[in-house]
Amino acid sequence: MKPMDEVLLVIDVQNDFMPGGALAVPLGDEVVPAINALAGKFAQVVLTQDWHPAGHVSFANNHAGRQPFETVALPYGEQVLWPTHCVQETPGAALHAGLHIPHAQAVVRKGYHGDVDSYSAFLEADRKTPTGLAGYLRDKGVRRVHCVGLATDFCVAWSALDAKAAGFDVCVIEHACRAIDLNGSLANAWASLSAAGVSRE
Ligand code: VGL
Ligand code: ZN
């Protein structure tokens, strides 16, 4: 029997994060077959989708004179400025067509408030606004969250840390993730995950 108290959380497997996409994650497409294979082992699978309005505060384009991958200070803290990506209802925001998880039961969109980013599937970058995923998973009897997808050092790491903080047992399945690795972000992410008690599998 597949355990009912575990979920596979599939993070941001979207066209814009694939090679050739607007915010390409190197080798990002390699997670697709890995995740398809893993999904069959889980009774419960939840997907996330980065889902920004065109005027989103995380886009370098919306800050005069600023370039992608610079950082700016926002009211909630430091924000990396990204190339415009995952704009609502665009093909780049769509889930990768090769993802085959018919039994995936929910898609959680995040980053849809114009003035706040949300790397995490649980809590927006203001660190106050919940997405509702923690309550959803608790209602479904989930105790352990297995994180996979893109990118290891941003949305996967933040989601895993917040899942842990919300009281779940959490692991990150490394072979089913790929990273952006911006200024040491990947090593920092693994260090934070380890310090928080998130296991690396
Ligand atoms: C992500 C940067 C901006 C991610 C999303 O999915 O890791 N990274 N938006
Ligand atoms: Zn984003």
From TrEMBL:
Pathway where this protein functions: Cofactor biosynthesis; nicotinate biosynthesis; nicotinate from nicotinamide: step 1/1
GO MF annotation list: metal ion binding; nicotinamidase activity
Entry-linked InterPro entries: Isochorismatase-like_dom, Isochorismatase-like_sf, Isochorismatase_Nicotinamidase
Hydrolase among keywords: yes
Domain of life per record: Bacteria
Similarity comment: family membership: Belongs to the isochorismatase family.
UniProt lineage: Bacteria, Pseudomonadati, Pseudomonadota, Betaproteobacteria, Burkholderiales
GO biological process: pyridine nucleotide biosynthetic process
Enzyme class: hydrolase
Name of this chain's protein: Nicotinamidase
Assigned EC number: 3.5.1.19
Keywords in alphabetical order: Hydrolase, Metal-binding, Pyridine nucleotide biosynthesis
Domain Isochorismatase-like: 7-196
Short name of one Pfam family: Isochorismatase
